[in-house]
Design goal:
The complex is a heterotrimer of chains A (about 325), B (about 575) and C (about 300). Chain A is mainly alpha-helical and about 325 residues long. Chain A has 14 helices and no strands. Chain A has a domain of about 220 residues: MetI-like fold (Orthogonal Bundle). The longest helix of chain A is centred in the middle third of the chain and has 37 residues. The radius of gyration of chain A is 23 Å and the shape is globular. The two termini of chain A are about 15 Å apart. The relative contact order of chain A is 0.15. With about 575 residues, chain B is of the alpha+beta class. Chain C is mostly helical and about 300 residues long. Chain C folds into 2 domains: about 70 residues, no CATH class; about 220 residues, MetI-like (MetI-like fold, Orthogonal Bundle). The longest helix of chain C is centred in the last third of the chain and has 39 residues. Chain C is flat and about 85 Å long. The chains are: A mainly alpha (about 325), B alpha+beta (about 575), C mainly alpha (about 300). Chains in contact: A-B, A-C, B-C. Chains A and B meet through loops of A and helix 7, helix 8, helix 10, helix 12 and strand 17 of B.
């Protein structure tokens, strides 16, 4: 986390906030006596505590005691992730095991979320479905972040033609309504899990590219970058060794905040029938399959929906927590 | 031959029914529309339908309070010649030369309609028809022989027509299709005698020609209106004119279609004031609307997931009306894909499926197991066909004999557009075949790839269904097993050319009994001896009907598109 | 100022061309004849060929593209293979439904989001703050299709307060608008909150405070107005994004809008229709962004100075 010290004041979460945060931060920075809100004071205290913390573990402890909601969310995510990873052990039944004599059963000690239209255990299917939701939450987010970062760095640092082309491409991508664009990509590639990765990556790289570009633009004017340049360090080295580390806090925040969006997009695509395909299952597909039985056996449609909600909410709370901690203005103090 | 209304089959010769068929859509128009994800349209929930002015074609201000209300898909087009699955408008706003009537004992026969009578020449080639006098279209124009000529000409020449197979048996039809002639009258296929009398000559004798004249695609169109309407025919209600008991009055896209009673209809005014057909995609939504009184008739074929509820409910169980659905569900086995080329393997695949459990699980047991090709309710159905037994041990033995004691790997194909029920079906099949060591992998393809692969004969193993367009075994036998091309088109790749030659030859057998016997023998050879596919079952067609409705009957073949002439509703 | 607007409009043109090109390429690289796919079980090769030729699908792709482009220049989006109607008329029919839904949903998101943002800004870190922000975060995290199903089940089916689905009366829009609006209320709340917090730091607000004005007075008379300006300029963007976000809501509530057309087009592999709906919505979004940008620079003096 030592890079935080050199972190630029420019936060750029895209859109109009960018300008506001800039002016606000600048004003506060120029005016040390500015009235600080209680929350700001707490943040400063937190940053100081963090600075004093000896080990990473201490830091996590401080963070957890500071933002309980984020801490709980983190635990929830870890639990879901562990269940997904160890699904064969965690699931009480084989998720594909059919029992045609026990179809559409309600909640019971044997089947805590009942059974679906083929007599399969819904809870076990949800545990396996978590794999899809988590992988879809993490992988396309990571891929789009990576793609967006590289393009953003190139665009911001090299400028000129590269900048022009990349930013126009970003404009075009962002002009598309994202769910519709994902649908078109799925239409072209065909339904399926790998194609969801590609569709979601394709849809969401542009936001990251813009953020990283604007940060690169301000960083490249910093003295130490100028110095490196004058010492003849190659531009790729500067981009990836000097500028990129400074973008990391932003990237971490973007990462956590983008995950719920990916999870929800996947579930929407699956709900519409163009995402995950049987025999694979995902929570979105389970809601879609279960909705026909909303009256006969509501739990099989409700439970996977709640699971999506909990996971997305957890990532959102965690993202908010992470953002608070990474708040650049405070880290500069 | 004499002038009369004949029973369905006067078998004489080659039936012109080709591959296309009409209402063939797997499982009929019913289940195909029931999938939650593939539902193609929107619903209109409340009764007041007048708000959407400006988005409605036709008259937007019709009071539908007293109309019969039910749900269906949003159609692509309602032109009878251009649709192969949406038959409500063709059935109710148009008439055919002949119709099918269902008798009280469940059999059906062909009866006169626009044609009050006809004669067939001794060589079985020329059919002379006599139209009823005084039949008027809903716009007041008279029905004449030239309309019939126009109808068949258009079937063969209109670029978007999909039901042209109906007219392809007529002499010179190929010349029209190849744009070498404009009218059947010029090539000897049609002869106008006077305003009400005409004759049609076939290129070869064809027993099922009369049966084919009863299908929705053979609806008679008004020459002047249809020609003037151009491509708006079947889209714009004001120009979509027929002689039927209802008038197509308005179409609010993706929302509802309204048909009003044709009080001056030649065959008598219908028993209700009109039909209000709501476009409702989701099964659970349809159920909610039915329970809220927003629908009078609920088609359980379109809402299979709700069937158990209605059948089990004290309130509704007396409101169920049932009929047969003349169609067969099957699993295609591609003989070109090893080891399905081995007949013992195919027999093992037949015997290892507990078809009754599948029927119970997916359709609440509402249907009958089938053991051949011709399903219950079709002329030629053979109730003496031996049952394909469910015998896992024997199936294992067969596999071992075939040289696969440990089973083998098999790909099952489903389309991403399939309904949930058909996807469930394949999952059950995969699990049952697993019991005898067939290690199945379900592969989901998008529909484009699936159809491409199927038509090129390379699809591994899939499930589908076929429902009767007209009541003749030819509609089933020839479609699948008429020749190598047809068998390949559906990725069956059936190899017994001798049997296929006989299927084609059976079209020319003149004695009805002999012809049926031949079909039944062939059916046994193809399915029971050669195990060309796994026959599954046929379904019953159930409707839940509001007690205010009377006179509702299910059509002979169990299509969801019924004929509403005699249905009334009391509010 | 005028120059800036003209500039901004000019920049949108290449974006628009790029959008059309990308969509066209994506939808036309897929193998398989769309007519064959649509006819599925009824397919017969000669019928497929005849209908393909009718739609000009037998021509080379580049020629088809030129024809499409030419038609597009004349405002013609083509004819739907599946529905036999012009895409223009299909979109014209569907658009009013989607627009109504988007506006209603935007209203809902402001009704939830703006008070939530204000309260949590002036009551920072209190239970009120947490509750309101939590409520809007819940909306952001909720799968829209699932919420729609649950709402439909409870309020339409169980309680019978509103119609189950459809779009014929204004009551039909209540549930879809709440579901859709709630999902974007979080964005509005966050924006309002951050703007208000910032405005409260401004000199003139502190001056007002110093003059002894009550907190409520300060917020209502000074801060509120200025904080909301950027929120209001967001409207154009938000309505545009709701227009496209309505896909799921329209599907569940069976509203015959643009989103449903797009979903239908995908299910039916109806290329011209999908192409048309995507291009149409994208144009709306580009226009929305443009309007927002212009409004923003007109309203916000700080931007104008730069």
């Amino acid at each position: 986390m030592k890079n935080l010290k050199r972190y630029s004041p420019e936060t750029a979460f895209g859109g109009k906030n960018e300008r506001k945060d800039l002016t606000s931060s600048a004003k506060k920075a120029n005016d040390p006596d500015a009235k600080l809100s209680a929350k700001d004071r707490k943040r400063i205290q937190l940053a100081a505590d963090l600075g004093e913390a000896e080990t990473g573990w201490d830091k996590i402890k401080i963070l957890c005691s500071e933002n309980k909601l984020a801490a709980i969310s983190f635990v929830v995510i870890v639990v879901i992730a562990l269940m997904a990873i160890f699904a064969p052990a965690a699931a009480p039944y084989d998720p594909t095991k059919q029992d045609l004599l026990h179809r559409l059963e309600g909640m019971s000690p044997e089947h805590i979320f009942g059974t679906d239209q083929l007599g399969r255990d819904v809870f076990s299917r949800m545990i396996y479905g978590a794999r899809v939701s988590l992988v879809i939450g993490l992988l396309p987010t990571f891929l789009s972040l990576a793609l967006g970062t590289v393009l953003g760095l190139i665009s911001g640092y090299l400028g000129r033609t590269a900048d022009f082309i990349i930013m126009r491409l970003a404009d075009i991508t962002m002009a598309f309504p994202s769910l519709l664009l994902a649908m078109v990509v799925m239409y072209t590639l065909g339904a399926g899990i790998v194609n969801i990765f590609l569709a979601l990556t394709f849809v969401s790289w542009a936001g990251t590219a813009r953020v990283i570009r604007s940060q690169t633009l301000s960083l490249r004017e910093m003295e130490y970058i100028e110095a490196a340049r004058s010492m003849g360090v190659s531009k790729w080295h500067i981009m990836f060794r000097h500028i990129l580390p400074n973008c990391l806090p932003n990237l971490i925040v973007l990462f956590t905040l983008n995950i719920p969006g990916s999870i929800l997009s996947e579930s929407s695509l699956s709900f519409l029938g163009i995402g995950a395909q049987p025999p694979m299952t995902s929570w979105g597909l389970m809601v879609s399959d279960g909705k026909q039985y909303l009256f006969t056996n509501p739990v099989i449609a409700i439970a996977p929906g709640v699971a999506i909600l909990i996971l997305a909410l957890a990532f959102n709370f965690l993202g908010d927590g992470v953002r608070d901690v990474m708040d650049p203005y405070l880290n500069k103090q | 031959m004499k002038k009369h209304a004949v029973i369905v089959l006067v078998c004489s010769a080659l039936a012109g029914a080709a591959l296309a068929g009409c209402g063939s859509s797997a499982g009929g128009s019913g289940t195909a529309a029931s999938g939650s994800t593939s539902a193609s349209s929107e619903a209109a929930a409340s009764t007041a339908a007048t708000e959407a002015a400006g988005q409605t074609l036709g008259n937007a201000n019709i009071d539908t309070t007293t109309f019969l209300k039910f749900a269906d898909d949003n159609p692509d087009i309602v032109d009878p010649q251009c649709t192969s699955d949406y038959y409500i408008i063709p059935m109710n706003c148009f008439d055919r030369l002949l119709e099918v009537k269902v008798n009280s004992d469940g059999t059906s026969e062909i009866v006169p309609s626009l044609a009050k009578s006809y004669e067939v020449s001794d060589d079985g080639l020329t059919y002379t028809f006599h139209l009823n006098k005084g039949v008027k279209y809903s716009n007041g124009a008279d029905l004449t022989s030239s309309d019939v000529l126009y109808t068949f000409n258009r079937l063969l020449t209109y670029p978007k027509a999909v039901n042209n197979d109906i007219a392809e048996g007529i002499l010179g039809a190929d010349k029209l299709e190849n744009a070498e002639a404009d009218s059947l009258e010029d090539v000897g296929g049609f002869k106008t005698i006077d305003d009400l009398d005409f004759s049609i000559t076939l290129s070869q004798p064809n027993a099922s020609f009369l049966a084919q004249l009863t299908v929705p695609g053979a609806s008679i169109l008004d020459e002047d209106t249809t020609e003037a309407a151009g491509d708006q025919f079947g889209i714009d209600p004001s120009v979509t004119i027929g002689t039927g008991p209802f008038v197509f009055s308005s179409w609010t896209f993706n929302s509802e279609l309204i048909l009003t009673a044709n009080k001056d209809c030649w065959s008598g005014a219908p028993a209700c004031d009109g039909l209000d057909i709501k476009v409702v995609p989701d099964e659970e939504t349809q159920r909610m609307m039915f329970e809220n009184g927003e629908l009078d008739i609920l088609d359980l074929d379109n809402t299979p997931s709700q069937a158990d509820y209605f059948l089990g409910s004290d309130k509704y169980k007396d409101q169920i009306i049932e009929g047969p659905r003349v169609g067969i569900y099957y699993i295609a086995l591609n003989e070109d894909i090893e080891p399905m080329g081995n007949v013992e393997v195919r027999k093992a695949m037949q015997e290892s499926l507990d078809r009754q459990s599948i029927l119970d699980a997916l359709y609440g047991g509402r249907g009958q197991l089938e053991n051949g090709i011709l399903p219950h309710g079709l002329v030629g159905f053979n109730e003496n066909l031996p049952e394909i037994k469910y015998d896992v041990d024997d199936a294992k033995k067969l596999l071992a004999d075939a040289g696969y004691p440990d089973g083998f790997d098999l790909e099952l194909d489903i389309s991403s557009d399939d309904t949930q029920t058909s996807q469930d079906l394949m999952e059950i099949v995969s699990s049952m075949w697993g019991e005898i060591g067939i290690n199945c992998t379900i592969k989901t393809m998008d529909d484009a790839t699936l159809q491409d692969t199927k038509h090129s004969g390379e699809l591994s193993c899939y499930s589908s269904s076929w429902s009767a367009d007209f009541n003749d075994p030819d509609n089933f036998m020839y479609t699948f097993f008429g020749n190598e091309k047809n068998a390949k088109f559906r990725s069956l790749n059936y190899k017994n050319t001798d049997a296929m030659d006989r299927v084609t030859a059976a079209r020319a057998i003149t004695d009805p009994d002999k012809r049926i016997a031949e079909y039944q023998d062939l059916e046994k050879t193809i399915i029971q001896d050669d195990a060309a596919w796994v026959p599954l079952f046929s379904k019953e067609h159930l409707f839940v009907v509001n007690p205010q409705v009377s006179g509702f009957t299910v059509s002979w073949n169990g299509w969801s598109n019924n004929y509403y002439h005699n249905v009334s509703v009391k509010r | 100022m005028t120059k800036k607007i003209v500039n901004r409009v000019l920049v949108s043109i290449p974006v628009l061309i790029g959008v059309i090109l990308i969509i066209y390429v994506m939808l036309n690289v897929i193998p398989g004849n769309p007519i064959e796919v649509m006819m599925a079980e009824h397919a017969r090769q000669d019928v497929i060929d005849r209908i393909s030729a009718y739609y000009g699908l037998d021509k080379p792709v580049w020629e088809q593209f030129l024809i499409y482009l030419n038609n597009l220049l004349h405002g013609d989006l083509g004819v739907s293979y599946k529905l036999n109607r012009s895409v223009n008329s299909l979109i014209a029919d569907a658009f009013p439904y989607t627009l109504k839904l988007a506006i209603a949903a935007a209203l809902v998101s402001w009704i939830i989001g703006i008070p939530a943002g204000i309260l949590s800004a002036i009551r920072e870190n209190t239970i009120v703050d947490r509750l309101f922000m939590g409520f809007s975060l819940l909306g952001v995290s909720m799968p829209v299709f699932w919420a729609a199903l649950i709402f439909q089940y409870i309020f339409a089916y169980r309680l019978g307060w509103v119609p189950v689905s459809g779009a014929e009366t204004w009551q039909s829009y209540i549930l879809p608008a709440i579901v859709l609006g709630w999902s974007s209320a979080g964005t509005i709340a966050r924006l309002t909150r951050s703007n208000l917090l910032e405005v409260l730091e401004e000199d003139y607000i502190r001056t007002a405070w110093a003059k002894g004005l009550s907190q409520a007075g300060v917020i209502l008379h000074h801060a509120f107005k200025n904080a909301l300006l950027p929120v209001i300029t967001m409207m154009a963007i938000q309505v545009a994004s709701l227009l496209s976000g309505a896909v799921i809501t329209e599907t569940v509530f069976a509203i015959p809008g643009i989103g449903r057309l797009a979903v239908d087009a995908i299910t039916n592999r109806d290329m011209p229709l999908l192409q048309g709906t995507v291009i149409f919505t994208t144009i709306l979004i580009i226009a929305g962004n443009l309007i927002a940008d212009i409004l923003y620079s007109v309203i916000d003096p700080r931007i104008r100075e730069k």
